[in-house]
Amino acid sequence: MQLLPRFELHRPESLAGVLALLAAKPTARVVAGGTDLITNLRHGLAAPSALIELARVPELSGIRAESQGFRLGVGVTLESIADNAELRRAYPALAAAALSVAAPSHRAAATLGGNLCLDTRCVFYNQSEAWRQGNAYCLKYRGDICHVAPTGKRCHAAFSGDVAPALMVYGAEIEIAAPSGLRRIALADLYVEDGAAHLALARTEVLTAVYLPAIDARLRSGYRKARARGAIDFPLAGVAVALRVEGNALSSLAVALTGTNPRPFLLEGTETLLGRPVDDALLTELSKLVQKQVSPMRTTVTASNYRRQVAAVLAARLTRELGAQAGTGIAGK
Ligand SMILES: Cc1cc2nc3c(=O)[nH]c(=O)nc-3n(C[C@H](O)[C@H](O)[C@H](O)COP(=O)(O)OP(=O)(O)OC[C@H]3O[C@@H](n4cnc5c(N)ncnc54)[C@H](O)[C@@H]3O)c2cc1C
Ligand code: SF4
C-alpha cells in the first residue's frame, strides 16, 4: 500500500451541494464509508483531485417503512441493515447478504450505496502500483492488454458486491440524482456487462435511495456465498433466491448472481420452472441455467470452472431449502 494521493476533501450537507461539486470538479469522486475507495486509492488505482464525502447528506439517510414497502437511504450502513428486525423479517436475503460483507468493523462504516457501486475486481488489478507496473498494467487501468483474455478488448473484472443480488430478487428499484433531477430505475438496470465501466451512472450522478416493494408473506428468500476465507472475503460466487409456492408447485422464482460476471444479474428463464414441485429434476434444470449464464474468468485465484460449478450448486441448494420451508419439494443436500 502507498500513501494516499493529495486531494481536497469536501463535506457537503445537502444533495444539491453534492451535485454542484460533482459538476464543478471534473475529476472528483464521491466517498461514502471509504472501505473500498480508500483501499483503491492506496493501491494507486485512482487519483481524484477531490473527494466529496456523502456522510452529512440527509437525503441519503434512514430506513423507512412506506405504504408500498421500504425506502433505504444509500447512506445507511450494512450493519444497520443487518441489525434491523423489520428488514430481517421481511427481506431475509438482504439481511444475510449485508451480514456476509467483510468484517464487523467494515460493516459499521460500509454503506449500501458504496456496496452497490463497488468497483469490479481482478487479480491483475487489485494490486499495488509496483506490482501492476511490473506486469505492464492492464486494460482496466493504464494498460492496453487484458491479461485474462489477451486477444480481446474487453475487461472481465468481476462485480463482487454481496447486496445487489439480494435486492434484485425482490425487484428493488434505485433512485438516482442527476443535475436534471431524480429518476427511478430497476436496480438490475444499473449494471452493464463491462468490467471497466460496469455502472450505467454518469460521473455527475449519485445513487440516493433503494426502494423495496412490499413482500407477500408466502415469499421465501435467502442469500449464500462461497468465499476463500470464511470469516472475511468477497464472494467467489454469491446467489440470492426468492420463491413462492402455491399448492405443491412453484408460483414464482427469482435467482440473482454476483461474483461471476462484471455485473450482478437476474437469471433468465426461471419462468420455465414454474408450476412444478421443487424436486431433483427441477434443481438439475436450474443448475444448467446458472452454468449457462455465468461467465467467470481467471480474475480470482480460484479456477473459473470451480466458480461456475459452485454458483450452480449454491443456487440449487438454496432453492431446495427454501422450497422445503415453503412446503414443497424434497429435503436433502
Ligand atoms: C478486507 C475487505 C473485505 C471486503 N469484503 C467484502 C465482501 O465480502 N463483500 C462485499 O460486497 N464487499 C466487500 N468489501 C468491499 C467494501 O467494504 C464493501 O463493498 C462496502 O459496502 C463498500 O461501501 P463503502 O460505503 O465503504 O463504499 P466506498 O468505498 O465509500 O465507495 C465505493 C464506490 O462507490 C462509490 N459510491 C459510494 N456511494 C455512492 C453513491 N451514493 N452514488 C454513487 N457512487 C457511490 C464510490 O465513489 C466508490 O467508487 C471488502 C473490503 C475490504 C477492505
Ligand atoms: S479482466 Fe483483464 S482488463 Fe480487466 S482487470 Fe483483469 S486483467 Fe485487467
Question: What does this 3D model show about the protein?
Answer:
The protein is α+β, with helices and mostly antiparallel strands. The chain folds into 3 domains: 1-56, Uridine Diphospho-n-acetylenolpyruvylglucosamine Reductase, domain 2 (2-Layer Sandwich); 58-117 and 158-213, Uridine Diphospho-n-acetylenolpyruvylglucosamine Reductase, domain 3, CATH 3.30.465; 220-325, Enolase-like, domain 1, CATH 3.30.390.50. Helices cover 29% and strands 20% of the residues. It has a 5-stranded antiparallel sheet with strand order 4-5-8-6-7, with no helix packed on it. Strand 4 and strand 5 (69-73) form a beta hairpin. The longest helix has 22 residues, at 304-325. It is globular. Bound molecules: flavin-adenine dinucleotide (FAD) and iron/sulfur cluster. Iron/sulfur cluster binds next to loops.
Low-confidence stretches: none
Beta-strand percentage range: 15-25%
Q: What is the radius of gyration? A: 20 Å
What structural class should be given to the helix and strand makeup?
alpha+beta
Number of domains: 3
Largest sheet, spatial ordering of strands? 4-5-8-6-7
CATH C-level category of the largest domain: Alpha Beta
How many DSSP helices?
Answer: 11
Number of E strands: 12
Shape label: globular
Reported CATH architecture of the largest domain = 2-Layer Sandwich
Give helix % range. 25-40%
Per CATH, what is the topology of the largest domain?
Uridine Diphospho-n-acetylenolpyruvylglucosamine Reductase, domain 3
Q: How would you state the average pLDDT, rounded?
A: 96
Largest sheet properties: 5 strands, antiparallel
Task: List all distinct small molecules, including ions and cofactors, that are bound in this structure.
Answer: flavin-adenine dinucleotide, iron/sulfur cluster
- How many angstroms separate the termini? 42 Å
| Helix and strand run | EHEHEEEHHHHHHHEEEEEEEHH
